[in-house]
Amino acid sequence: MFDILTLLQCLVPEIKVTTMRQLSRIIMAMLAMSGRVTMLGISRWAGTGGSYRTVSRFFHTVIPWAKVFWVFFRQHLFSANDVYLLAGDEVVITKAGKKTHGLDRFFSSLFSKPVPGLSFFALSLVSVEKRHSFPIQIEQVIKSDVEKNNVSPSPEVKSQEKRGRGRPKGSKNKNKKEVIFTSELLRIKKMIDELVKLIANFLPLTYLLLDGHFGNNNALQMARQASLHIISKLRHDSALYIPYQHSAPNHHSRRKYGDKLNCRNISHEYLRQSIIEEDIQTDTYQATLLHKEFSQPLNVVILVKTNLKTNARSHVILFSSDLTLSYDKIIDYYKLRFQIEFNFRDAKQFWGLEDFMNLGQIAVTNAANLSFFMVNLSHHLLGQFRENNPGSGIIDLKTYYRGFNYVREMLKMLPEQPEPILLAQIFAKLTSLGRVHNAPTAVEPS
User: Fold this and answer.
1) In whole angstroms, what is the distance from residue 369 CA to residue 138 CA?
2) How far apart are CA 123 and CA 294, in angstroms?
3) Model confidence at 437, in pLDDT bands (50, 70, 90)?
4) What are phi and psi of 148, to 5 degrees?
5) Helix %, strand %, coil % of the chain (to 5)
6) In 3-state terms, what secondary structure has residue 132?
7) In angstroms, rounded to a whole number, what is the distance separating the alpha carbons of residues 416 and 427?
8) Where along the chain do its domains lie?
């Protein structure tokens, strides 16, 4: 049995001892419990010292979660020889009622429409070697009045006057590096600045991984202001141009944009790799291209897939602001961005991100951050658990803790302790009930 209180000792400088003990009780309950992860459900599994009032006090305590995440990661999850990327994404959870803090309508990719609920933006450190994402900072998305009122004007309000051909008189060139950030980008930039300040001089960060929603110049400028290079995805119909080169090498031309790139007929000089698997041919192209909405050249990687039987084609356009990054790393790093989605899945399925019923700001913040903290903690526990139980997952880990609780409660009822061999057999049997992966040998409690 793992000693949770010992694992949390590294958090003592950041949180009070009383809060840490409450947290250890809650963690033990969450590891063993079944059903919905709510304050009432936790109190039913927490046992002595974990009453509902104690659990409620914890959820209404202000906790510096950013420091808690970082200290735990640095102590138990960090690998000095690994390379870490910073990834960001938003997760939406459905909520009913009208009084939950931050309740609004947010677009959910699962439902493909706006749904009433809560939204949280998460920053994660993604390990290139371990291929795993570790949540490091969570912040609730609160829509500003501008975002709520940002609706497209009705056709009657639009001006019926058509602008003449050519450039309007008196218009001036705009510096594309000087952009006005939306409230969304300002929130993300603030989170990145706080994180970089927290981990300064310990963990260097170079790349920021974002999905196609952030494939625009404003997001690129936000990343560059944070001293990071962005890796993201462009629209499939993006207008990309080859930099203009005059036929005379010594001729200086003011022309900037050359021919427009046709993704269905890309020059062979940009081909970097071609692979055929199961009648699907994947051609990988890389080039430094221009986009009229961006302030700088882009390192673009285009993946073109062709069905050799039907000749159907599709393509994906990835890009980075780092012009020196190779095509294979751009592809690999963007694939790693999806690891943050597994964090969202685990937080919802196992650790109560979809279950909590808290209403106030502090309680909602603690409930969401606790769910993501359990993602990191369970990953650390699984690393030790798999030494004797290869292939085990979170369900197996929770079953093990639940079985241990049953054995402990059963031993309290016996007039005397059973023989060590019998006790080991009881422990092995009860901790294996409901497991997905049956282990050949049982792990005895310490």
Assistant:
1) 6
2) 25
3) confident
4) -65, -35
5) 35, 20, 40
6) strand
7) 16
8) 4-147+178-210+338-385, 235-323, 392-446
Distance CA 98, CA 6 (A): 40
The rounded distance, in Å, linking the Cα atoms of 139 and 186 is 13
The DSSP bridge pattern shows strands 313-320 and 229-234 to be antiparallel
DSSP per-residue codes, 30-69: HHH--S--SHHHHHHHH-TT--HHHHHHHHTS---HHHHH
- Range name among 192-201, 225-234, 400-409 with the lowest pLDDT average: 400-409
Which H or E run contains 23? helix 17-32
Burial 338-361 (b: 16+ CB within 10 A, else e): ebbeebbebbeebbbbbebbbeee
Q: Is 33 helix (H, G, I), strand (E, B) or coil?
A: coil
CA dist., res. 19 & res. 189, Å (int): 30
CA distances from 315 to 47, 109, 297, 332 (A): 56, 21, 20, 17
What's the CA gap between 32 and 394, in Å, rounded?
A: 11
User: pTM of the prediction?
Assistant: 0.88
Q: How far apart are CA 380 and CA 437, in angstroms?
A: 19
Select from 330, 332, 343, 424 the least CA-distant residue to 379: 343
**CB-count burial class (<10 Å; 0-12, 13-18, 19+) for 420:** exposed
- Highest mean pLDDT (candidates 265-279, 399-413, 414-428): 265-279
pLDDT, greater one: 172 or 359: 359
Q: How many CA atoms lie within 13 A of 19 on its CB side?
A: 17
Q: Residue 21's pLDDT is what? A: 93
Furthest-apart CA pair in the chain: how many Å?
97
Structure token digits, residue 41? 């459900």
**CA nearest 400: which of 348, 436, 355, 349?**
436
Tell me if 319 sits within 8 A of 221, measured CB to CB. no
Residue keyed to tokens 């039987």? 309
Using alpha carbons, list the distances in angstroms from residue 177 to 113, 189, 224, 349: 33, 16, 10, 42
In sequence order, the 6+-apart residues with CB closer than 8 A to the CB of 156 are none
The DSSP secondary-structure symbol of 94 reads: E
Question: Residue type for 141, please?
Answer: V
